[in-house]
Amino acid sequence: MDTVKTVLKDIPKFAVVGHPNKGKSSIVSTLTRQDAVSISEVSGTTTQAQGFTCSVDGVPLYELVDTPGFQRPRQVLEWLQQHVNNASQRAEAVQAFLSEQQGKENSRYKDEVELLTPIMAGAGILYVVDGSLPYTPEFEAEMSILQWTGQPRMALINPIGGEVYVEQWQAALSQFFSIVRVFDPMTANEQKKSALLSAFAELHEPWRKNIEQALERLQDQQAKLDVQSAYLVAECLSSILSEKQHIKVPTQFVESTLKKQLSKQYQQALRTYENQCWQQLQSLYALTRLQTHAHQLEADFPDLFDQSSWYLFGLDRKKLVGLSTAAGAASGAIIDAGVGGASFMAGALTGGLVSGLASLAATMKTDGLKIKGVPVAGKQLSAGPVKDPAFAFVVLGRQLDFLDVISTKNHGDRVAVAVQERGMSHRLDRLSKKQQVQLTRLLHKASKGLSQSETGQLAELIGLLRHSVG
Q1: Domain boundaries, the chain
Q2: Which of 117, 147, 282, 351 is most buried per CB count within 10 Å?
């Protein structure tokens, strides 16, 4: 515990300040990778300074303090100017202002006290402005006050509604801040976030080592998340593709109703697996707040059993048959799994040919779910696993499309997830022929269950499929 306290004391700390409703909270949320930061379009949502620490595996890396916006900067600046004789006394004047106001229960400058307190306690300054609005002199009072604190400071231009006035802001801000950056917390990728963190090191030399270590830890964490998420998807695939459901036939029954009930039960079980996987992925990437919008995510996704949308996630018939043929042949040791192109059909004599023909037949059917058993009282009907080979690629495509969004979504962006329907065909084209065949073989085998080793192989291929997409 003592070690953690020491680390927390020494880590870089930044107060995110500025006018109300300029995206300060969104920047805090994105850079600390936390969605616990309150964000609202209503001006003045943040009323008290609150610190949020970015940590990896329990190790704190840096802290950002979300603060209220300036309310009366001109009056504060006037007070400060009346209490100094020269520039050397400016920081003392700011501290004197805080001391005077902190003793008042109903201070007019409550917001200014909240935002200046962490700065005078040693926090660096991240001053946030909106690049879509024109620069006006009214902001100079705020910037002058921050300059008076004597603390390291950087300005961030947040293009909330566009970048029309970015150049204006850059010219003005450079007069008050040593570093000026354009940063959109909603769209910034890992590279842009890392670049901004690197700029932090330029503010204050004593922070450089800590920030460099923070960047290394964050990079390592990203690699771990890639591996863990791929394994989660592989386990989900194995569960869905091997799922079976049974229903006992009662003494009195209507066959059509009974089959419909079993079909509904089976499909619901698969949807549950998928939803659980999505929730686990959201938790893995610390996006738990998205759980409150689960119905919106489902609405954006076509239903799992809506075959009219399968082309969005699966493969075309020719591609599917070719891969199934090669996978069947590879499983029967008829051909080498690494052959490609025209060699597929030439080398597939038994297992490959049968598998290919079965795939062709399956892709021409309209329903991959079959109810097994004869409806006799006291007996059982069973459903699953789905034998349609296209179904495995449909499920995989859905998982990858969802993971693409979750893994790149910034914590400051609270808009409902919109999944890009990338599909599987172009993903597979980025793999070698050998890897494509290996993936197909594993998906075929998943209906009977995968061993831990095979699940690991599937996870590795899923990782390759993910990194092949921009």
Answers
A1: 2-203, 223-467
A2: 282
